[in-house]
Amino acid sequence: METILDAPFMVELIRTTTNMYDHGWDERNGGNISLLVDEEELARYLDVSHPLRSIPTGFDAPTLDGRCFLVTGTGKYFKNVQYDPENNLGVIRVTDSGRTAELLWGYADGGSFTSELPAHLMSHAVRLAENPANRVIMHCHPANLLAMTFVHDLDERAFTRTLWQMCTECMIVFPDGIGVLPWMLCGTNEIGEATAEKMRRSRLVVWGQHGIYGAGADLDETFGLIETAEKAAEIYLKIAQMPILQTITDDELREIADWFHVTPREGYLDLA
Fold first, then answer.
1. What are the φ and ψ backbone dihedral angles of 212, each rounded to 5 degrees?
2. d(CA 219, CA 204)
3. What residue segments make up the domains of the chain, in order of their start?
4. How far is it, in rounded angstroms, from Cα 168 to Cα 115?
5. Which of 81-90, 109-118, 185-194 has the highest mean pLDDT?
6. Which residues are the active-site residues?
7. Which CATH class is domain 118-272?
8. For 153-169, what is each residue's pLDDT tens digit?
9. Cα 221 to Cα 29, 108, 203, distances in angstroms
10. Are 194 and 131 in contact (CB under 8 A)?
11. Which of 36, 43, 45, 77 meets the CB 3.0–4.6 Å disulfide criterion with 135?
12. CATH number of 1-115
């Protein structure tokens, strides 16, 4: 049996956590990732028939029963994942209609999955219903998007339009727009439910004064979603106090959408 540390999904997640830390998105133990992995693929690397222990999840996720996830650990620093993945990561299988997670590998120091697991699994359930190819939920604290929530209207349409207008790529990368939540207490089922509801329409959800959630088919796509939105937020903060002499107009945003065959979020562009 091959070692799980050589599995492509493990190698890529370790690279991603390292990259996110290097970008300054995941200070200390801030941020978390969950990656859906097929049990058949896991069985190449693990004995999936003998869980190490069971951990209560504290909520229901019946549509995810039997699904397996590679998840960052609670209280773990992203900068340490590359050096000690077995303590900082874990592979879990959701059972008991979502109320229990069977640990198949990892959390070797007796730890557990991220405290944001409710938000992750609720969002996985919603995104899988919208797009069965979804595999990743990613949470981090990009400084510019976080700063933007202090000075910009948190109306989703206004927030999205500002980011779309900052650089041409935004319409191409997230035409479905950005969901926005006001400040809420993290680590609770309530913020998980609110995030999942936003995920029905958008693959990116900003948490006011906290950070962002992203969803995608793989780690590259999800990282790229956040990276693009964060770059747009950086541009906005650099120019927000200056006279704006030109911008990307709604007609030009439609032109981008038509050329790249994407559909802008309905009602987010002014009528032509």
1. -145, 150
2. 14
3. 1-115, 118-272
4. 36
5. 81-90
6. 116
7. alpha beta
8. 999 999 999 999 999 99
9. 23, 30, 11
10. no
11. 36
12. 3.40.225.10
